[in-house]
Amino acid sequence: MGWPGASGPGWLALGPAYAHLLVILGRPLIPVIETTPATTYWVEGATVWTTRSFFDPATQRPVVYRVELWKGNASYDLILLAALILATPGWSLRERGRLLALGLALLTLAEFAFFLATIEYSRLRPVTTQTGSVLFPAGFSRPKEILATWVYYFFQTMGRGLFPLVVYLGMVGITWRSLDKRAPQRAPVRAPGRNAPCPCGSGEKYKRCCGKA
Which residues are CB-neighbours of 81 under 8 A, at least 6 positions away? Predict the structure, then answer.
């Protein structure tokens, strides 16, 4: 398995940098997951691609195709979390920056899990050749394919909208709790002595005025 040199015009943009980050994080783990021989991965702009090959018994030739694993332009969960943090009133600029960094770190872990799930999903998919024959990858089984498909579509549909909302609600709960701790505690109001002037301003002693109650 190789990792050809990455190319793309948007080296300084966030999407390509994020795609390269996922590839770097996945480098030590993908060989454990990947069992298809002669598989390569590379980055084009903000998209991570893989090239796979199967041997077609009908033509006695390898069938080569490529699969899109991760697309930076579709990663709207990062944008959603940033928008929620920036739109929340009552947070200082420093607090917004700290929460944004924490949120991006948590969502990066979620994106990396989605990246690995996509690798497993694409690895277990049968391939239909031009001759009409269906090629099954090594280690293929229907239960594995069903499980990988469910996990993939969870990340692809629900996960990308659910994860940033869960992270944001956790941030709101943490900040509210810290505000409650920082709120000044009022000292308990003590009743005046029996012979002290009544606080209502009547001029009578407390025991002869409001203290009767």
Answer: 100, 103, 104, 107, 164, 167, 168
